[in-house]
Each structure stands twice: as structure tokens, then as C-alpha cells.
Amino acid sequence: MDQEAFEKYMLANNIKQEQASNFIARLLEFLEFLKKDGIGMGSIPEGKIVQYTEILTNKNEETILDFLRAIINYANFTKKYDYIIEVIDIVEGYNAMDNLYARVAEHFDEEIRDEIFKDITIPALGIHPDKKPDFTKEIMKRMEERIGEEKTIELLSPCLHGRPVEPIKKDREDFLKLKNIDKFLELKKKEFIERLQKHRDEGTLEYAQYVDDEVIEYVKNSRTITPGIREGDKIFVTKIPYQMQKFLNTEDERMKRYFSCYCAWVRGAIKKGEERDISKNFCHCSAGFFKQYWDIIFDQSVKVEPIETPLTGALECKFAVHIPQEYQ
User: Is 90 exceeded by the pLDDT of residue 162?
Assistant: First the structure.
């Protein structure tokens, strides 16, 4: 690892000296771990990062986050974007169950929360994602038994991990200018394809995946992949598969569903063929991801519901956004 060049890169990208030194220290510790297997920072095999973070789970969360931030910065510095994909797998929705823990107490009380979470531990940041669904299975069972399906859905619907709102505010401005849902959806689809094309040309990632011509053609040919299409009083939207290239390159339907799903709290169950053990209602959390978007676009609370997901046996996640009456 070229520490000097990496440090200069970080400082040039507005990372303060103290934080840059901290990142280098975290990576040097990781390098010692890699050296035991004769591996360097330039060729980290898939699975090694999460193997290391599992070791770090006995430390505080901020130490693990600092290590993962260091990996992301190093990956951008060296253009080793595969490392970022593995980091995203580790951190995707990592705080969702902590937020659920707080939300149960907020909407009910601490006694009910403690009853639901009794004798189970929320998986720590850094644990292998495929180990998380066992917790989801148990917590959903307990919530639905204690507070019922309807109240469980109410808790999940706002989304447990949230999303940045600033880009949505810009889309809200476009929506107000166009004053037409269909034209707005056409514009956002065009912008999404242009973004994918830019990733393809520059060799960068669209969230947790590389983009090639096949990915772009798939998105172009899907009527519902982001941002969706209006049919009557609803917008039907499908998530672009989490890892599209792998999704397209496997004929195994179960693995297609695994590569399609974004949620670390259920993906591992799909891989093991145990998705039926998890309540399908958990996907209302993913519906909440779209709800946050359309709540801002329409400037009011809207209903968004899952139509089908990999958890219910479908290949992709499809949701219905209920359009407010004044915009129909």
C-alpha cells in the first residue's frame, strides 16, 4: 500500500488529516491480517473483508465503520470497486433493526419492546450478511404475534433505514415544472438510463454493481424499472436487481431471486431456500423506500405496497404507489 499517495488522495478529497491518519491505521491493521495468507491490499479475495469485520465485531461500532470507510476510500483511490461491493453487502441496512427496536418503544412502550426483543440480540455491524435472516424470521414472528400484522406493517412502512432526501427535492422541482406524472416518469427514466450509461463508460458502480450494455438494455426494455409507469390511479415500479450482471448470468431461479434482492436481512434466507420462514410483510420496509420518495414528490403521505418480491417467490421487487386523487 502506497501510504503517501493514498494520504495525498484523501487530503485532496477533503478528508481531514486526523481522519486520513486513522484510515491508514485501520488499513495497516487489516494488512497484517491479510499477510497471514500471503495477500496484499491490491488483490483482496472476495469474502476477506467480511471475514475481517466479523473479527472486529468485538470492538465498538465506530471502529468497524472507520475500517469500512477506509476501505471505500482506498477502493476509490485504486479503482478496486469490487471492494466497495463487498462493503455495501456488509453495511446495507445495518441499522435497520436498531431503528425497529426504537420504533417499537416509540409507538407502543418499552415493556412491549422488551417483550418482543427478549433474549435475542440484534446482529452486530460486521457480521456476515447471510447470518442476519435468522433474526428477521424471529423478530417478525414475535411482532406479528404480539401486536398483529396490521401494526407490524405500520411500523415497517416508513422504511427502517431511510434514504437521502436532497436528490428527491430536485425531482420534486422537476415534477412541479412538468405538472404531468407521465412526462415526469419519462424524464426520470431517461435520466436513470443516462446515469447507467455514464457508469458503463467510466467503469464505476451503480450502487453495488457494475454496468454493461446488457444491464442497460434490460433497464430500457423494462417498463416498470425505476421510476415506474402509471396505470390508472397507481404507479407500478420495479427495483433494478441488486446485482444485475449476476442476475442475468445465472439460470438458477433461486439465485436470480438472491441477486435481485437488496435486503441483507432476508437475502441469505433466499440463498438457502428458507425465505418462506420469513413473513412477507417485512417487504413493507422496502415499500417504504419508495414511499419516502413519493411522499416528497406529492408533498403528502402516500400508500405504497409490495406487489411481489423475491421473498414471495418473484424474480424482482415490484411495488404499487397509490397516486393522490388530485394528481390522478
Answer: no
